[in-house]
Amino acid sequence: MYNTLLILxxxxxxxVDISGEFYGKKERQGKLEVPKFWEFPYSLDILxxxxxxxxxxxxxxxxxxxxxxxxxTVKATFCENLVGADYGHLRTFVPWSNEDSSILLxxxxxxxxxxxxxxxxxxxxxxxxxxxxxxNPHCKYNVSMQISPQEVFGQIVRHYLxxxxxxxxxxxxxxxxxxxFTIAKHGCCPSFPAAHRTFAQPYRVLxxxxxxxxxxxxxxxxxxxxxHLPLPEKYAVPDQLPETLISIFLxxxxxxxxxxxxxxxxxxxxxIGIILSPCINRNIPFSGIAVVPVLVAVAFRFSATLxxxxxxxxxxxxxxSAQVKHxxxxxxxxxxxxRFTVLLLWxxxxxxxxxxxxxxxxxxxxxxxxxxxxxIFPTLISLLVFPLEGALKRYNIITSINC
Length: 403
What we know:
The protein is α+β, with helices and mostly antiparallel strands. It has helices at residues 149-160, 163-186, 192-199, 202-219, 221-226, 241-281, 288-301, 304-327, 333-352, 354-362, 376-383, 385-394; strands at residues 2-8, 17-23, 29-33, 44-49, 55-61, 69-77, 88-94, 99-104, 110-116, 129-135, 140-147. The chain has 12 helices and 11 strands.
């Protein structure tokens, strides 16, 4: 047998009322199968509690994924002879992540709480999330539930939107791979849209990515941890359909967004080309190799992201120069195509390092050295563009690209 003790203690000199109740294990404990978000778009009444009850608990079976969000509404009615009293408590509890919160209930008001998970239920976890009601025995209660589309969208953004920059980077890397492959095989460099349309098609990436994800799930998270390859539990559960659909959707968004960023950057390069055209027409020499030591010093002494941003500004001039000379027929479009892809990839890498630059700016006035900058290695690799282009020109490789 289980018992619950509820003490009502108002701020007065009156005697304290103590209410007690005895009940069996299954008498005040129920299980509720949480439907999928497409199965019930409207509010459903799931429970009605009569007076003279102090406790009721519900196990939420099926609430296992971070993409689920259910709103429960509790309304206390027909409360007898209660003035300023406690109308009850509603508690949400997730055993595998120790998420524990509660709210106070009020009379004749829809008291709502949204139940969402911060971590998916592990494979070996047998317990379910719980919804517990601590009730006033003088009231009746009506409990309903409804899917919260706003919270579902918030969960997707919170747990999956961070993969969008990775998908953007994947698109750019595939474009660069196809361009370099074409240069090696045919001696020419295709444009960014042509390479993107040829080699970054969604079916090429999604089929391979989901096959690799299936292989990782078959291996198991425990074996991956032994190999020092941790796999988050929310990606190691057998029910992969919601996560797979979200990944497909985000890659399609990244695919379209890559083209949008391409056209915006192309417009910006065209404007920079017009501004720098007097210098370009006079054939003023510009050697990126000469500024590399300065940029490296800035990266180690101040901020790696700042150094990368300065490098991008200088590389903008080289891309604009290639674009102006292509318009005038002095060079083919191949050099411009290759430089443009490198510029776009470099720009995205720099944006990834923006948090370290913000941290450096916030600590500028303190006068002490910060810890190691995590953006230093991507910056140093990006700065190799200048000496690599110089070496390719010396051996007459980059200037001989022509379709």
